[in-house]
Amino acid sequence: MRFAVNVPTSGGTSEYSTLPFCSGIDWPTQRAYGLAAESLGFDGLGVPDHLMTGDGATTECLATVTALAAETDEVTLFPKTVNDVLRHGPLLAKQAATIDGISDGRLKLGVGAGWKADEAVAFGYDWPDAPDRLRAMEETIELTRRLWTGEAVDYDGDYYTLDGAVCRPRPVQEQGPPIMIGGGGEEFTLRIAAKHADEWNYWGPTSVMERKLDVLASHCETYGTSFEEIDVSWFARCLVRESDAEVEALLDDAPRFRDPPDDDPMSDYHNLIGTPAQIAADIERFAAIGVDEVDLEFVDFPDTRGMELFADEVLPALG
């Protein structure tokens, strides 16, 4: 099982705030945190894609990924996930190929159809309904794979039309960066994942993940693609301390994670909360249903104590 660490792009207060100890964000903090994660032996760094969240600064995702690529040596780097609405698909393919070169082949391209309409509208984007956003995302993936060959591409879709577009230099990775599709919509997103994804990313308890995996497998059967060849990654927020008493003290400072009400989006997530032994046992249940990678957001960011404790005690317990 692989483990990646979320490098936040925003802090401050909002209805989406999940980082109670982070009042703001800046590149030196992100850089130090990413380097710490790599030094602790984590496999990857994920970077959220938003334009504005909370009342503080929000750094742009792909610029942040590129900067981390220049500073790190071994970790996989990935946007988690690029909001397709905010990117011109063919240009995203070009940007990804360039970042793959800068990172010497360490990019994974996470893509999704987005969910936060207010920031898109604030920046002057139209916000289509979900089916339109997902169909456009599928075209982005199709033309991206073709552009990564380095050959001239003609493409006539409903959302994009290309006339002899060439993407050179090609990505360093021979087949291009793996494409990770995020989201759990069973009619559209999982169908697209079955058809196109190297990896699928979602969140929630094992019961939700098992249901989604069954649907994904069914779509794979329809398309004649290999369910077994799609990596499964799972996103979770993590609050870890050495003792039960320390965990309770941390929850006192982050009460949203204790018992979120049903109308709080947090209630749909399965957060990793507890001592190292408790968290290792929890993760083993996800490994048992086929999760290949856990993408972690440590709630005590920018403090590195949680990340260090996870690396020192949880990772060895999981073998």
TrEMBL record:
It is an enzyme of class 1 (oxidoreductase). Residues 1-251 form the Luciferase-like domain. One of its GO terms (molecular function) is monooxygenase activity. Keywords: Flavoprotein, FMN, Monooxygenase, Oxidoreductase. It comes from the Archaea. Pfam families: Bac_luciferase. Its EC number is 1.-.-.-. PANTHER family: ALKANESULFONATE MONOOXYGENASE (PTHR42847), ALKANESULFONATE MONOOXYGENASE-RELATED (PTHR42847:SF4). This is LLM class flavin-dependent oxidoreductase. It comes from Salinirubrum litoreum.
